[in-house]
Q: What sequence folds into this?
C-alpha cells in the first residue's frame, strides 16, 4: 500500500506527531526491541511537556536519559519489568515498578485500571491490504494501542512482519511517522562462570524428554540451557520470548513442533529479542505464530499443550520452595513477568511441570542462593505450592508433593557444599527436620553423574539407576515396606519388621560414593518415580574387596535387574580401586546364588556350619592393562 496516496493526512514527522501529545498525558510505549526509538527521542526533546506518565514493559532507550535531572522532572516511568539497562535506576528509586502477571497486564488496560492517552508504537510498512505488523513486540502492545485515545506509529522498514495476531490496519493508527532505523538488538549478559551454567544446563537437559513443549526465558542461563538440548527430538515451543538460542535447534530439526497437540507445527511466542539475524529469521516465517500476552501467557492456554515444561530462573529460593525472582531484598531487580503464568500453566498441562534454574551462590560464591528463608524484603513471586523442580549446578531438587522435611533435604543437597551443614542446623532449630538429621555430604558430587544409567525391560518399561541421596529417605522406607517378608529376610538375615529413620541414618553415615556406594533403580508410577531395586557395596577389612548386596522388589525379579546392578556396581568399584566383591548369602536364597554364579562363574564359595554362604568374586582385569602392547 502506498501510504502517501492512501492516507497522506496521517503522515508527518516525529516532531509534528509528538506535538499532538499534551502535558499530563499517560503514554504507553511499545516494548523491548520493538520500541519506537525515533519517537522516544522526539518525545524527550519536546521541552515544554510536563508531568508525563510513561507505561512500558521493557524499556531500553529511556535508560539513556534516566540520569538527566531535567528528564526526571518531566517524566515519570512506570515499568512492568525492570530491564538490565534500568536496574541501577530502579535501585536509586528513579522508576516505579508495577508487579503484575504478564498475562493480566492487557486486562489492566482494557479494564481501565490503567488509563492511557497516547500509544507510541513501531510497525512494519503495510502490505497491499493496509496491514502493518507489530513485528517483534506483540506482547502488551496491542492492548496498549487499543486503549489509547491517540496512536502514533513509527513505520520502519527494518521491522520484520511476523505471522499470527500481530497485524494492525493503518486505519487503527492516527499518525504515521516514516522513519527507518535498526531495531534494538539485545543480548544476554556475559556469563561470569561458564562452568556453573554448563552444569545447570546438563541437569536441566535430563528433565526434558523428546516431544516436550518448552517455555524458556531470556538471559544468559536460559541461553546456555538451550545449547544443552541439541540431542533432543521433536521439541515444541510455547514461550513468551524468542531469542537467538532457538535458531540452531530449529535448523538442526531439534525443534519441529510436530508433537505439539496445541497449534502443532507452530512456535507460539509474544515477542522477540536478539540480533538482526534473528529478526530476519522470523520475518514472514510461517513457523512462528505471535500472539499477545493475554493469550500466550494465559495459564489455561498454556495448559492446552501436553508435556509443557516451563524453564525459568530465580534470584533465591528458600528451603521450603518459596521463590523470589523480582527483587534483591528491598531492591527491585527484574519483575514477575511470565514465571507464575507458566508455572501454573505447566502444572495444569497433561504431563507438564516447571523447572527453576539458578546458580547455587551469588557475590562470587560468598552468598548462598538457597536460603533458610528469603531475604528481608524479597518478594515471593512463586509460592512453595507452585514449585516442581529446582536446579543448581549441584543437582536437581524435586519438590512437588514433598513435605517440608523432604524439601529441606532436596534443597540442601543442591546448595553449595560449604553452606549445607549450616542450612541443616538452621532447619533443625526450626523443627523442619529430625534433630539427628545428617547433612548431605559436603563433597562436590558432579562425578556421580557418570554413574547414572538405564535399562529397558522386556515389557518396555525403563528402569533408571542412580546413586542414592539423603532426600530419598522416604522413598527408601516405602521401598522396604513394599517388600515381602521373605525378601527382607534374604537381605537382612532376620525378620526385620521396621525400617526407621535411625536405620536409614546409619546407612547415610556410611555412603561416601567412593568406598561405599548404593545405587537405586527407579520406575515411573503416575507422575513420580518409585524405587524398585537397590544395590550396595561397602568397604570391608580387606581393603581391596567390597561387600555387595542387592534387593529387587518381587514384581521386578527375574528381569535381569540384579545382574545389571551388579555390573554397574563393579564398574564403580573398579574406579575406586576394588579388586572384587564379597557377598554373604543365605543357602536357601537360590535366586541370588544363581545370579552371582551367572555373573561370576569363577567365584569361590566358603561353606561352614552357618546358614549363610560367603562368596568371593574377583573382577576380571582390564584387557588393555594385561596386553603388553599397551
A:
Amino acid at each position: 500500500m502506498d501510504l502517501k496516496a492512501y492516507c497522506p493526512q496521517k503522515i508527518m514527522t516525529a516532531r509534528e506527531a509528538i506535538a499532538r501529545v499534551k502535558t499530563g498525558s499517560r503514554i504507553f510505549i511499545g516494548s523491548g526491541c520493538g520500541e519506537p526509538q525515533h519517537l522516544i527521542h522526539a518525545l524527550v526533546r519536546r521541552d515544554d511537556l510536563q508531568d508525563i506518565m510513561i507505561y512500558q514493559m521493557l524499556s531500553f532507550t529511556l535508560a539513556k536519559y534516566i540520569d538527566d535531572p531535567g528528564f526526571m522532572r518531566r517524566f515519570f516511568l512506570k515499568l512492568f519489568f525492570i530491564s538490565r539497562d534500568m536496574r541501577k535506576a530502579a535501585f536509586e528509586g528513579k522508576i516505579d515498578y508495577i508487579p503484575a502477571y504478564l498475562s493480566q497486564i492487557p486486562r489492566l488496560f482494557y479494564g481501565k485500571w490503567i488509563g492511557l492517552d497516547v500509544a507510541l508504537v513501531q510497525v512494519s510498512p503495510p502490505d497491499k491490504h493496509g496491514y502493518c505488523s507489530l513485528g517483534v513486540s506483540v506482547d502488551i502492545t496491542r492492548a496498549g494501542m487499543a486503549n489509547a485515545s491517540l496512536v502514533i506509529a513509527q513505520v520502519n522498514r527494518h521491522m520484520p512482519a511476523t505471522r499470527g495476531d500481530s497485524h494492525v490496519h493503518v486505519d487503527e493508527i492516527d499518525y504515521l511517522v516514516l522513519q527507518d532505523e535498526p531495531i534494538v538488538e539485545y543480548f544476554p549478559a556475559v556469563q561470569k562462570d561458564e562452568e556453573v551454567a554448563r552444569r545447570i544446563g546438563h541437569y536441566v537437559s535430563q528433565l526434558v524428554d523428546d516431544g516436550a513443549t518448552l517455555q524458556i526465558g531470556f538471559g544468559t542461563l536460559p541461553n546456555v540451557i538451550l545449547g544443552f538440548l541439541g540431542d533432543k527430538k521433536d521439541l515444541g515451543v510455547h514461550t513468551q520470548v524468542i531469542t537467538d538460542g532457538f535458531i540452531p535447534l530449529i535448523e538442526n530439526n531439534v525443534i519441529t513442533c510436530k508433537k505439539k497437540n496445541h497449534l502443532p507445527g507452530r512456535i507460539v511466542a509474544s515477542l522477540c529479542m536478539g540480533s538482526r539475524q534473528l529478526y530476519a529469521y522470523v520475518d514472514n516465517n510461517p513457523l512462528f505464530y505471535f500472539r499477545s500476552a493475554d493469550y500466550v501467557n494465559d495459564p489455561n492456554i498454556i495448559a492446552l499443550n501436553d508435556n509443557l515444561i516451563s524453564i525459568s530462573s530465580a534470584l533465591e529460593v528458600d528451603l521450603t520452595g518459596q521463590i523470589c525472582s523480582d527483587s534483591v531484598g528491598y531492591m527491585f531487580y527484574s519483575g514477575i513477568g511470565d514465571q507464575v503464568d507458566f508455572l501454573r500453566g505447566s502444572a495444569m498441562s497433561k504431563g507438564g511441570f516447571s523447572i527453576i534454574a539458578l546458580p547455587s551462590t551469588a557475590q562470587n560464591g560468598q552468598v548462598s542462593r538457597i536460603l533458610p528463608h528469603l531475604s528481608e524484603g524479597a518478594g515471593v513471586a512463586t509460592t512453595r505450592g507452585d514449585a516442581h523442580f529446582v536446579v543448581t549446578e549441584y543437582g536437581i531438587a524435586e519438590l512437588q508433593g514433598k513435605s517440608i522435611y523432604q524439601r529441606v533435604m532436596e534443597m540442601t543437597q543442591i546448595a553449595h557444599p560449604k553452606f549445607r551443614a549450616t542450612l541443616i542446623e538452621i532447619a533443625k532449630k526450626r523443627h523442619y527436620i529430625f534433630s539427628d538429621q545428617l547433612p548431605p555430604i559436603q563433597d562436590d558430587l558432579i562425578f556421580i553423574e557418570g554413574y547414572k544409567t538405564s535399562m529397558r525391560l522386556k515389557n518396555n518399561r525403563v528402569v533408571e539407576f542412580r546413586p542414592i541421596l539423603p532426600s530419598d529417605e522416604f522413598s527408601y522406607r516405602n521401598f522396604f515396606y513394599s517388600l515381602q517378608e521373605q525378601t527382607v529376610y534374604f537381605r537382612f538375615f532376620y525378620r526385620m519388621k521396621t525400617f526407621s529413620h535411625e536405620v536409614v541414618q546409619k546407612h547415610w553415615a556410611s555412603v561416601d560414593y567412593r568406598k561405599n556406594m548404593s545405587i537405586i533403580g527407579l520406575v515411573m508410577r503416575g507422575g513420580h518415580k518409585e524405587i524398585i531395586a537397590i544395590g550396595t557395596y561397602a568397604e570391608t577389612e580387606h581393603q581391596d574387596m567390597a561387600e555387595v548386596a542387592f534387593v529387587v522388589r518381587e514384581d521386578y525379579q527375574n528381569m535381569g535387574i540384579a545382574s545389571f546392578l551388579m555390573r554397574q556396581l563393579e564398574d564403580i568399584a573398579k574406579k575406586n580401586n576394588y579388586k572384587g566383591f564379597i557377598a554373604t548369602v543365605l543357602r536357601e536364597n537360590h535366586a541370588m546364588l544363581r545370579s552371582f554364579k551367572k555373573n561370576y562363574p569363577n567365584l569361590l564359595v566358603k561353606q561352614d556350619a552357618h546358614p549363610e554362604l560367603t562368596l568371593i568374586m574377583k573382577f576380571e582385569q582390564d584387557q588393555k592393562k594385561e596386553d603388553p602392547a599397551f
Remarks:
- The longest strand covers residues 528-539.
- Residues 449-626 form a domain with the Aminopeptidase fold (CATH 3.40.630.30).
- The two ends are 76 Å apart (CA to CA).
